[in-house]
Design brief:
5 strands; two-stranded antiparallel sheet; 6 helices; single chain; 53% helix; 3-stranded antiparallel sheet; 190 residues; binds zinc ion
Length: 190
């Protein structure tokens, strides 16, 4: 896809336009492939691929027919591919998956990547979730509450004793101040 974008024809011309206009000459097919990549093989940088010239010509004929079928028709129309049907409704591209796997892939591709999360609770039974807000780390209220309990436990283990001691010291101070107030209060009254 990267190489495809890099080599896109000028914006005035569609890539599909170049494709349907391309000659069926073997040399031309090679030139087209060198520029844009193979048609229905997954293009991987530096990876190998092969296809028959017949297959390429067949695909081109299909696209030529599709072009001719669509020409001048404002109505919506559906194109059939191997994994998706693609239709145009109100100038919007709508793709319909042909298999469940195709549908699942489409859902995953459409989802906002920053919201696709895995629950931080280690033994969560439904860990995969779509975050409602970007700070959400846990899949559910149950897991968030579990985390809070863990946090409190850890806090008590690490800082609880020191905190208790400081609380006692403060209480002692408070009582002695109270005593002083009471004493001075009485002396005032006397
Ligand atoms: Zn969870």
């Amino acid at each position: 896809m990267k190489s495809l974008l890099k080599n896109s024809p000028s914006s005035a011309r569609l890539l599909v336009e170049e494709f349907v206009n391309s000659s069926q000459d073997a040399d031309e097919i090679v030139r087209f492939t060198q520029t844009y990549g193979p048609l229905d093989n997954e293009a991987r940088e530096g990876g190998e691929f092969h296809f028959s010239l017949r297959r390429w010509k067949n695909l081109q004929s299909i696209f030529r027919q599709l072009w001719e079928g669509r020409a001048g028709r404002p109505v919506s129309r559906t194109f059939s591919g191997s994994s998706y049907d693609i239709s145009i409704h109100n100038r919007r591209l709508v793709s319909l998956a042909k298999t469940l796997e195709g549908y699942l892939l489409m859902e995953l591709a459409k989802a906002e990547a920053t919201r696709l999360r895995k629950c931080v609770r280690p033994d969560c039974s439904n860990p995969y979730f779509v975050a409602r807000h970007l700070k959400q780390q846990y899949c559910s209220r149950e897991c968030a509450e579990w985390a809070q309990v863990q946090w409190k436990k850890k806090w008590w283990e690490e800082k609880g004793t020191t905190w208790l001691k400081s609380q006692k010291r403060q209480n002692v101070r408070k009582t002695s101040t109270a005593k002083r107030v009471r004493t001075s209060g009485r002396s005032l009254a006397e």
